[in-house]
Design brief:
By secondary structure, this protein is mainly beta. It is built from three helices and six strands. It has a four-stranded antiparallel sheet with strand order 2-3-4-5, with helices on one face. Strand 3 and strand 4 form a beta hairpin. The longest helix has 9 residues. It is elongated, with a radius of gyration of 26 Å. The chain starts with 10 loop residues before the first helix and ends in a 54-residue tail after the last helix. The N terminus is likely disordered.
Length: 197
């Protein structure tokens, strides 16, 4: 087992279903593969985003000559509101994360592994205890999938500029009451004579 029992972290990190102890895999020859199921894991994507369902999918870890190649295929759904009529919208999200994760500690010597001279300082690395912390990579991948202008339906008609109601088929004003949120706008007059300054 190449000393995997001496490199385990305290129980608190092993409670995270998106943290994987990979010291055993790191001791295997290049080409060795491990597959994992990710089943309904709660993730906070940050930046004011909210998921409407947990993250599920699969993770494949392949041993390379330098570290691990990760290939995660995940799905979830983001909560939002329609860009035209402001109704709640749920956007299905599928993400694929492919990256090479490098060790930060040499498994055999226990010495730090320096970053290669031309290496990316932002490249993901295993923890000092030979663990892959997938959670930040998942959160980032989901946040990048946030739609710019989600719609409740492709031809959403939007809101009426007069009353603020959704422009449903057959929408008419007659003497319909004005949306209370727009009532204050009635006090404004647009004419050059009444300007003060």
């Amino acid at each position: 087992m190449s000393g995997s029992g001496t490199t385990r972290r305290p129980v608190d990190t092993h409670g995270d279903p998106l943290t994987f102890a990979v010291s055993g895999l790191m001791a295997e020859p290049p080409g060795t593969i491990r597959d994992y199921d990710i089943d309904r894991v709660d993730v906070d994507p940050g930046e004011g985003l909210r998921l409407t369902e947990p993250v599920s999918g699969t993770l494949r870890l392949s041993r390379t000559n330098r570290g691990l190649l990760l290939d995660a295929r995940l799905q979830t759904a983001l909560a939002g509101e329609c860009a035209r009529c402001l109704r709640p919208v749920v956007t299905p999200v599928k993400v694929r994360i492919r990256d090479e994760v490098l060790p930060s500690i040499d498994l055999a010597s226990g010495q730090p592994v320096p970053l290669e001279e031309d290496g990316d300082p932002e490249a993901p690395r295993l923890t000092d205890h030979h663990e892959l912390e997938l959670r930040p990579l998942v959160a980032e991948a989901i946040s990048l999938q946030e739609p710019i202008a989600p719609l409740c339906e492709p031809d959403c008609p939007g809101l009426c500029p007069e009353c603020g109601q959704r422009l449903e088929p057959g929408h008419v004003h007659d003497d319909a009451p004005i949306d209370p949120r727009l009532e204050a706008l009635k006090a404004f007059r647009v004419d050059g004579d009444g300007e003060s300054g």
